[in-house]
Amino acid sequence: MRALVMTDFGTPATVTDMPTPSVTRPDEVLVKVQAATLSRWDLLVLDGQMTEHLEHIFPITLGHDFAGVVVETGAEVTGFTPGDAVIGLFEVSHLHEGAIAEYVVLSTARHLAHRPGTLPPAEAATLPLAGLAAVGAVDAVAVRAGDRVLVVGATGGIGGYAVQLAASQGAHVIATGLPEDEPYLRNLGAAEILDYRTDLTLALSDRYPDGIDSLIDAVTQDPTVFAALTRHVRGGGRVASTVMVADSADLATRGIDTVNVMADLAPHGTLDRLAALAAEGTLRAPALEIFNLTDAPKAIDAMRDNHVRGKYVIRVHGTS
């Protein structure tokens, strides 16, 4: 089978022939992948920035979430049968297997759910990684009606889902983006937009001198920059980071609850919850940039070079 693979640090990822995986355990399913997503996480892996956190077993297939069709099931699998349309996420205990491949094998004990019938594969593939991180962040900050919630990185996949989830719970969502992103972000449910190229701390001080209730940050990797943003969260407020930079001990001195969110640590069944929200129309897929598998390396270059709105999706099998 073909897959998007990195063979070492400092070398570009390429579409390479790899052994087709097979079901070897009774709780596993083999899935023919229709679409998978490329994320900022993959860029961190390519750049060697995850070596302190995860074991790397080369070659590494990139991508963590996908939409596809079940081909084969293990003897003890219940709830899934060949032909079922599914979405899934690889949990990150080490880096080796990945989603941007023609076939994947996944345990049903992991994050696997039936694909909402209303969603094409390319849209459905964006739900697991971005959706699980977003719902984890929104749950962590315990959004309530009327809360002023700042979503940093709102134009990306995680941020876009977080905006929708927070808005659906009655929050006043403040989203970061570019001026040209305003129609897109307002359509997701944002009440106002802040240009992230300006001094966000100054803008927040001017607009919210009494502070905001919550911060959800999906992009800030610099702890100093992140700390500056948290100073605008009122005492007793709540903060969530999906890039693991929140200093819980420091923020606790101000009475601020803090969570570093990881998608794969979401409670089992959360993906079913997201699928239901998508099926009923509460959640809509973010903007998509779709590349065929053969052009996946170009998608990596595009993600590095461009302002990302929504998600980059790799079409693997069939139409998406």
UniProtKB/TrEMBL annotation:
PANTHER family: ALCOHOL DEHYDROGENASE RELATED, RETICULON-4-INTERACTING PROTEIN 1, MITOCHONDRIAL. The keyword Lipid biosynthesis does not apply. GO terms for molecular function: oxidoreductase activity. This is NADP-dependent oxidoreductase. Its EC number is 1.-.-.-. The lineage of its organism: Bacteria, Bacillati, Actinomycetota, Actinomycetes, Micromonosporales. It comes from the Bacteria. Keywords: Oxidoreductase. Residues 7-314 form the Enoyl reductase (ER) domain. It is an enzyme of class 1 (oxidoreductase). Gene3D superfamilies: Medium-chain alcohol dehydrogenases, catalytic domain, NAD(P)-binding Rossmann-like Domain.
